[in-house]
Amino acid sequence: MAGAVAIPYASGRGHTRRLAEVIAAALGEGGCDARLIDVEAMTDLDWKALDAADAIVMGAPTYMGSASAGFKTFMDASGEIWAAQGWADKLAAGFTVATFPGGDKLNTLMQLSIFAAQHGMVWIGQDQIGAPANKDNPGINASGVWLGLGATSSRDKTLMVEAGDLETAHRFGLRIARLVRRWQV
């Protein structure tokens, strides 16, 4: 395997978990070992997996303009790791989902990227250009978010997240895998 990637996430109704699963599958395709971590049910093994990971890809739903309380609790619990800069130089990325295409997702991604910066991590943004700029990519990066993955929840609960955003999540996971391989020495 190219590297270990931990995916800590909070998911109130399953939308964020769905994105985490798609990203994890793409990381696997890209040669990485991905571990999903529900931050609201963390164990000591989960904390150890975060410490051992080459990259940490964080996911939180956007509720009322920011990351959910469950994810914020996880962030706050990392204080001792921050004080020791235990995650410094790891790669980091983030994803979020909201009801509306705008949905204040950028604010959540800013929270996650600042959190990563405080830990001394190196942030990975989005590289997918969708329509209307690239008419060959309808539905890709539909929210036009570049700081990370910003998805919109689907009214179709069999999908959970809009199909184009699921494909964008897949591409985001492949990008992270490429960068994990590139970052390794």
Notes on the protein architecture:
It is a single chain. By secondary structure, the chain is of the alpha/beta class. The protein contains six helices and seven strands. Strands 1, 2, 3, 4, 5, 6 and 7 form a seven-stranded mixed sheet that branches. Strand 5, helix 5 and strand 6 form a beta-alpha-beta unit. Helix 1 crosses helix 6. The longest helix is centred in the C-terminal third of the chain and has 21 residues. The relative contact order is 0.20.
Average pLDDT: 94
Q: What letter string, H or E per element, gives the SSE order? A: EHEHEEHHEHEEH
User: Percentage of helical residues?
Assistant: 40-55%
Described by strand count, sense and barrel closure, the largest sheet is:
7 strands, mixed
User: Over the alpha carbons, how many angstroms does the gyration radius reach?
Assistant: 15 Å
Which class of secondary structure composition applies to the elements? alpha/beta
Taken from the alpha-carbon principal axes, the silhouette is globular
Uncertain residue segments: none
Distance between the termini: 14 Å
Number of helices: 6
Portion in beta strands: 15-25%
Strand count: 7
